[in-house]
Design brief:
This protein is mostly helical. It is 45% helix and 11% strand. The strands form 2 sheets. The chain has a two-stranded antiparallel ribbon. It has a two-stranded antiparallel ribbon with strand order 3-4.
Length: 133
C-alpha cells in the first residue's frame, strides 16, 4: 500500500480492514447516512487512497469520477462545497456517535486526500461520553 504514510498508527500502520471498518462506521452514521453524495465522496477518496492514488486526488477528478461532471467546465466548485460539508459531518460524527472510534478519517482543509488517525484506548473518551451527550 503506497499511501501508507497517511495511515500510520504510533508504531504500526493501520490495516486496510481497520480503515474500511472506520469508513463503514462513518457511512452508517446519522451524520452521513442521509447524504448519498457525501457517502460517495468519502468512499471514493478513501478507496483511491487505499489503492495508492491518494496524492492524485484533485477536485476535477472527483467531479468527473464521483459526480459524472465534465472536468473542463469548472465543476470542481461543487467538490469544494461538498468537501466542506463532509468535513463538518466528520467533525460532528467524531464529536458524538464516533467519539469512541479507534480510527478517525480526516479530510484536511485545502486537500481531498484522507488522513487516517488511530486513537489509543487512552485517547478515547469511553462509552460514558456517548451516553452523556
Amino acid at each position: 500500500m503506497s499511501g501508507a504514510s497517511n495511515m500510520e498508527k504510533r508504531d504500526e500502520p493501520l490495516t486496510e480492514a481497520q480503515i474500511r471498518e472506520a469508513l463503514s462506521r462513518v457511512l452508517n452514521s446519522p451524520q452521513l447516512s442521509a447524504s448519498a453524495r457525501l457517502q460517495d465522496f468519502l468512499t471514493y477518496v478513501v478507496d483511491e487512497s487505499l489503492h495508492g492514488r491518494g496524492q492524485a486526488i484533485v477536485g476535477k477528478i472527483i467531479a468527473q469520477d464521483v459526480y459524472g461532471r465534465d472536468p473542463t467546465k469548472g465543476s470542481d466548485n461543487v467538490v469544494r462545497v461538498d468537501a466542506r460539508r463532509l468535513r463538518r459531518a466528520l467533525a460532528e460524527y467524531y464529536g458524538a456517535d464516533g467519539a469512541d472510534d479507534p480510527v478517525l478519517i480526516h479530510i484536511d482543509k485545502g486537500h481531498y486526500t484522507p488522513r487516517f488517525e488511530a486513537r489509543s484506548q487512552a485517547d478515547r473518551p469511553g462509552p460514558q461520553h456517548a451516553r452523556a451527550q
